[in-house]
């Protein structure tokens, strides 16, 4: 049976997506900051990426819940905030992917004394 998701419900979900995606961005930026150190601690960087992935998984889960509800026939109102949350999530996923690749390159070419 289809139900209607309220704007308040969708706002709450949107804020959870933004919150967890933002946490992932902070962790990703911390990893990149560590990468710029004179002697980067690659274990610390890997730990930041690990926790960033957990945050992105949480954000993605909230987004997917709404998509699945709509796919099952529930009415999801249009929301600029939810659109912004999805854009934020996608952008941070891309940032993290690039940061991880940059880290791989640095480890390969810059030396890795503590991997």
Automatic annotation (TrEMBL):
The active site is at 84 (tele-phosphohistidine intermediate). Signal peptide: none annotated. Keywords: Magnesium, Metal-binding, Phosphotransferase system, Sugar transport, Transferase, Transport. The keyword Magnesium applies. Binds 1 Mg(2+) ion per trimer. InterPro entries: PTS_IIA_lac/cel (IPR003188), PTS_IIA_lac/cel_sf (IPR036542). Gene3D superfamilies: Phosphotransferase system, lactose/cellobiose-type IIA subunit. It comes from the Bacteria. GO terms for biological process: phosphoenolpyruvate-dependent sugar phosphotransferase system. Its cofactor is Mg(2+). One of its GO terms (molecular function) is metal ion binding. The modification Phosphohistidine is found at residue 84. Mg(2+) binds at residue 87. This is PTS lactose/cellobiose transporter subunit IIA. It comes from Lacticaseibacillus rhamnosus.
């Amino acid at each position: 049976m289809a139900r209607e998701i309220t704007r308040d419900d969708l706002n709450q979900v949107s804020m959870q997506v933004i919150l967890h995606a933002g946490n992932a961005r902070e962790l990703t930026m911390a990893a990149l900051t560590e990468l710029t150190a004179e002697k980067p601690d690659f274990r610390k960087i890997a730990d930041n990426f690990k926790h960033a992935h957990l945050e992105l998984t949480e954000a993605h889960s909230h987004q997917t819940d709404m998509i699945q509800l709509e796919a099952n026939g529930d009415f999801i109102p249009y929301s600029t905030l939810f659109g912004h949350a999805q854009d934020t999530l996608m952008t941070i996923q891309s940032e993290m992917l690039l940061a991880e690749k940059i880290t791989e390159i640095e480890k390969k070419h810059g030396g890795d004394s503590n991997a």
